[in-house]
Amino acid sequence: MTDTRTDAIAERLLREAAEAITTPEQGECLHCFVARLLDAFGCDGELRLARRYRDLRAPRAVALERRLAAVGGTCDCEIFLRGWWLREELEDDEHDHRPRGRPLRATPVRAAPGGAAPVGSTDRLPPCAGVRPGSTQPCSRWVRRRPRRQVWW
Q1: Could you tell me the end-to-end alpha-carbon distance of the chain, in angstroms, rounded to an integer?
Q2: 60 burial type by CB count under 10 A (0-12 exposed, 13-18 middle, 19+ buried)
Q3: For residues 28 and 42, what is the distance between their CA atoms, to the nearest angstrom?
Q4: Which of 73, 122, 130, 148 could cysteine-pair with 27, CB 3.0–4.6 Å?
Q5: How many CB atoms lie within 10 A of CB 144?
């Protein structure tokens, strides 16, 4: 009998912790939220984190998935691989060996020389600049990636 009660308490505590971890901070934009949680939970090939943000902060954004897919963001990690990049002037490249202007999650998380923050880690993310309530637009920390023009000779 006590095992059932203990199990119920443990499940409730786990649900509450998961809810607290996966709830966007006040004023946090979609992109900062997804980037922050991608490091902790990874990508499952869907827009799971983007949907979570929409459900909690912008329920009227019914075209969010279609808008993200239009720029190549068909899953959470592709939002950054194909859609938006962290502004170059905000990148901390002291221990980062990626070319400047590359997507935030283009490289796997790995240990950096000298015990610094891992390359590709969101520990380097600047704090979110904030957005108005109900918005799914990125804050000023993000810039839209423009596709390269192909030159035909």
Answers
A1: 77
A2: exposed
A3: 19
A4: 130
A5: 9
How far apart are the C-alpha atoms of 119 and 56, rounded to whole Å? Answer: 30
pLDDT by residue for the chain (153 residues), tens only, comes to 567 899 999 999 999 999 999 999 999 999 999 999 998 889 999 999 999 999 999 999 999 999 999 999 999 999 999 999 988 776 655 544 444 444 454 333 333 334 433 334 445 688 999 999 999 999 999 999 876 666 666
Report how far residue 133's alpha carbon sits from residue 151's, in angstroms, rounded to the nearest whole number: 42
The full DSSP string for the chain is: -HHHHHHHHHHHHHHHHHHHHTSPPTT--HHHHHHHHHHHH---SS-HHHHHHHHHH-TT-TTHHHHHHHTT-SSTTHIIIIIEEE-GGG---SS--SPTT--TTSS--BPPGGG-SPBT-GGGPPPP----TT--S--TTEEEPPPPPPPP-
Q: Which two tokens stand for residue 88?
A: 């170059």
